[in-house]
Design goal:
Layout lengths: L6 E3 L1 H31 L6 H25 L1 E3 L13 E6 L4 E8 L7 E2 L2 E5 L3 H6 L7 E6 L2 E10 L1
Parallel strand pairs: 1-2, 4-6
Antiparallel strand pairs: 3-4, 3-8, 5-6, 7-8
Helix pairs in contact: 1-2
Length: 158
């Protein structure tokens, strides 16, 4: 089988996707039972409850297909170079103007936005993530978001 495009995931992200897939299987089972119950008791196949149940089951099936595809294409990120920012790294940054330190983990878009512990996950496709990939400790990164520009200094890579 040829993988069209690989989805690079942290080990935690891969496990989270697998758990989400299991939850979606459970939701599908419940939606199927509800649909069967409605079909058995409905005198009118145009019943809005029945149609809603069909749409919900289809949404869950599509979500399962998406998750299975992502897991099939997944490449789990192994140990990275600790001197260069790549997917999976936790990066400590110093906001030059605000003079405050922050930490972020650079991840693929599917993992972004998840907060585990105190380290937010940013996508490598976001302005900050794109600016960080390939950088080294001591590099300064200027990130443009709309009309705002922020400057960050890479303090540490873990």
């Amino acid at each position: 089988m040829v993988r069209s495009s690989t989805v690079r995931l942290t080990p935690e992200g891969f496990e989270r996707l697998k758990a989400t897939l299991q939850q979606e299987y459970q939701r599908l089972e419940e939606a199927t039972k509800i649909l069967q119950d409605l079909t058995g008791t409905s005198d009118d196949y145009d019943d809005s409850g029945l149609e809603d149940a069909k749409r919900e089951k289809a949404r869950i099936e599509n979500r399962i297909d998406d998750l299975e595809t992502q897991l099939d294409r997944a490449e789990i990120i192994s140990q990275n170079d600790p001197n260069r920012v790549d997917l999976g790294n936790v990066v400590t940054l110093n906001d030059v103007e605000a003079k405050r330190e922050m930490r972020v983990q650079v991840v693929s878009p599917i993992e972004a936005g998840v907060l585990e512990g105190d380290v937010p996950k940013v996508s490598d496709e976001s302005p900050l993530g794109r600016g960080l990939i390939g950088r080294n400790v001591g590099d300064e990164v200027t990130v443009t978001m709309g009309t705002n520009k922020r400057r960050y200094l890479v303090v540490a890579i873990a």
